[in-house]
Amino acid sequence: MLTRPLPELPPIYFYDDRGSELFEAITRLEAYYPTRTELGILERSAAALVAEARPRRVVELGSGAGRKIRLLLDAWRAQPPLGGPRTCTMLDVNDLFLQQSVRSLAADYPEIEVDGVLGDFTTDLARLGPGGDRLTVFFAGTVGNLYPDERRAFFRAIAQGMEASDTLLLGVDLVKDVARLEAAYDDPEGVTAEFNRNALRVVNARFGADFAPDAFDHVAFFDRDHAWIELRLRASRAMRVRIPAIELDLDLAAGAEIRTEVSCKFTRASVEAAALEAGLGVDGWFTDPEQLFALALIRRRAA
Ligand SMILES: C[S@@+](CC[C@H](N)C(=O)[O-])C[C@H]1O[C@@H](n2cnc3c(N)ncnc32)[C@H](O)[C@@H]1O
How many angstroms separate the CA atoms of 295 and 14, rounded? Predict the structure, then answer.
């Protein structure tokens, strides 16, 4: 990926312990509306969502600090049980955040069996076992970090593991005013810039590379054609980067850019189209008064 005309790094490299902490700091920024908006939607709609889904099992993909799931679990435990144990499984690539969130959820929800799967939601969905009365939640608009072909594969994999009684609750950031979108990814405090540069630190640690993160500037812009925010790192000077683990010497000219993330923005129609391609349908659409963000409740379409 680094040898492409526009070199790329997959966004999974943001998330070592420092990256996960930086993401948490981003969620508290004034300009970063998605987290508080999604929390607001959950506060208003968790009871209706859980009543609609009627799960025995809840799974969160890319669970991070596991804050939002608490609103669903609160609503879940307020509803009459369906019988049998209630379980909640958190799946994330970051072990520290996974262990911490599993521990604190298990302590605060003793009547729910909580466990964690250290894994990748693009390759490890089968590790979650067969479906049936399962509510899978994927918050934060993280689905938007998948490129369209990866997103299609993700929806297919989700659909494959889904029974008629299963639901997917998908958080999506909505297309909106460009200035507002771009401001959310380019805060004056520079937290998103640090998060972006952290991908280079992770590549250095994992692959023995010698990127100098401070020699890269943070770039964030909305690409209207693709309806996505793109994050890049721009080399402030010419440099050669050694990546011994893949035997690569990467020559970057001053101004050369590396794409580190896309964050696709959706409309109800584009979510419906993506779901439909995989044989899924949007059954419920929960949004905020400004239509900044939405939670789509998705099921298998009747054959
Ligand atoms: C944008 S954060 C969202 C965290 C949390 N769900 C929330 O709503 O605040 C994305 C989370 O997904 C995890 N993640 C990113 N790529 C992943 C992948 N391919 N497989 C599993 N987890 C991943 C990160 O470690 C991080 O915790």
Answer: 24
Residue whose Cα lies nearest atom 4 of ligand 1: it is 64
Mutate to test the pocket of ligand 1, among 15, 39, 68, 125 (most ligand atoms within 8 A of CB): 15
Please tell me the distance from the alpha carbon of residue 219 to that of residue 23, in angstroms, as a whole number. Answer: 17
Q: For the chain, which domains are there?
A: 32-174+266-300 (3.40.50.150), 181-264 (no CATH)
What's the pTM value of the predicted model, to 2 decimals? Answer: 0.95
Rounded Cα–Cα distance for residues 175 and 48 (Å) = 25
- Here the tokens at position 258 are 């590396």
CA of 64 to the centre of ligand 1 (A): 5
The span from the first CA to the last CA of the chain, in angstroms, equals 39
Instruction: Locate 4 and state its tokens.
Output: 């492409």
pLDDT tens digits for range 252-274: 999 999 999 999 999 999 999 99
